[in-house]
Amino acid sequence: MEFKVFIDGEAGTTGLKVAERLQEHPHVQILRVDEAERKNAAARADMMAASDVTILCLPDEAAIEAVTLAQASQTRLIDASSAHRIDPDWVYGFAELQPGQRDAIANGKLITNPGCYPTGFLALARPLIASGLLSDTALVCAPAVSGYSGGGKAMIAMHDAGDLHPAFSYGTNLQHKHLGEMTLYSGLKTPPIFMPSVGDFYAGMLVHMPLHADQIEGSATAAMIYNCLADWYDGSALVRMGAAAANHADVPPMLAADALAGRNDMELFVFSDATEQRFWLTARLDNLGKGASGAAVQNMNIALGLDDHFGLS
Questions:
Q1: Could you say which of 57, 116, 141, 228 is catalytic?
Q2: Which fold, 3-114+291-303?
């Protein structure tokens, strides 16, 4: 069976990566408007009407306008922008988030892709809170670093022109647009202190969640935390466990942020000090893969009843 897919905003960073993945997809035909018509609303609406799925790879305001264009059609929408991530009318497209999420995506007409940083944060926080190891009243922080491609074409151009600092933090007003979904879908009562930064590498990211033992319910051990995450993602196609604790022999001496660049999976790590009084949890993923275009393709596959891995080899 072949499905028709229209990528609205294919010329952007995420759109190009979605198209690249779909070129290898055995069950998808990509619909395209002529280059001269790619901003023509009527031409885009025609493509939406002809497609089984439309993937929106647009800035927030343009994505909202695109939803209006799609209203007359039967196409299913997957929005890669941040415009609808906490909208109750949209299904949050993180299939591994919790039981039932995959079914919601499979049955949803409106699906919103998670942000790249929230994907890593929620992969760590949601299982701990849902399992009762971490209280929903916990006060947590989330330092993180991403490749500069996360800033889209503008930041990539700044880097290529030599105008981008080799490393910098941003969002220092503590009002980052990702906080809404990080708080809502983790189940936290208080937003985390989110500390994003960008490094001098193209793609990849590390999202950290440090914890003290007294933040964990009961008698905390690294094995408890590791096993909670391992059980949560058991059987997952795209989320797997990495090293277990900092005093174990299998811990890498350096945790490279770009190790999964070009891939669509995510690794989770649990480190601790020798006394197991401090814990360092990390999610590693590609901000353009599981954090963006890979997630959009995975959501598309689920929505169409296909295997998660199609187009994601």
A1: 116
A2: Rossmann fold (3.40.50)
